[in-house]
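sanity check this record:
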Amino acid sequence: MTALALAPACVARLYREACRFDVIAFKPGNVSCEAAGHGMRAGDFLLSAAVSATALTQPGGGVGERLLRAVQATRAAVGCNTNLGILLLAAPLVLAALSPAGEPAVRPRLRRVLGELRVADAEFAYAAIRTAAPGGLGEVAEHSVYAPATVDLRAAMALAAPYDVIARQYCNDYAEVFEVGLPALAASLAAGDSLAHAVSRVYLRFLATLPDSHVGRKRGAAVAEALRQGAGELGEARKAGQTPRAWRAQVRRFDRELKAAGLNPGTSADLTVASLFAYQLGHALGG
């Protein structure tokens, strides 16, 4: 069987495209081109995507090293943490697409990358997390990123998996991405939705399905669960036959309420980007 791999330029382009639609799509509580928030604007995310794409896809390095390069490039460009969750999810996908393999499907390739993670990857990842300084990390971390790594990155992520959905992806081969995000994206596109609208639907699906880890880390599990229920009510209103115009108005009210309360469902947005990126990589690989 012929070994397949995507060129770095192709992977970088697909990554930037996934990040671009992250801000083109309207996502309640999150930053978009039409709705800034939390002290950040869409331009910060687009610049972050541009510089991190190069760092992720340049030759050399495993998952952890690529992650650290991308975080450092982002920090130098925008001076804050705009994309740590995206990068944590994207780095294994990037390496899965760049590595020659006979299997065109993304998930088996990804499974192999995750299975080969080393202690060195954890060391680089810890340095990346320290550099990004994500809000709320110190309050929940049971294994300190300020101490030397003693286990491989997948084992380290397993310690955080019970309360962090992004960490959980390293342990379950991206189950939420491939079993929640991709089906929602494919169904929306099959129904004739634009890509931006489909991305919004994927985001709302995540928001209504999983308590957002970023919100939970900063505001507590009860607030994250209330947010999940509120997103679920949006979905139920749409299913009940609410007109598109009325539903859009309700979605925008929800966005204003979340931002007024300082709630940023960042994990749901990160999972959405990873879902679109994985979907695009699959098409490019022919899998």
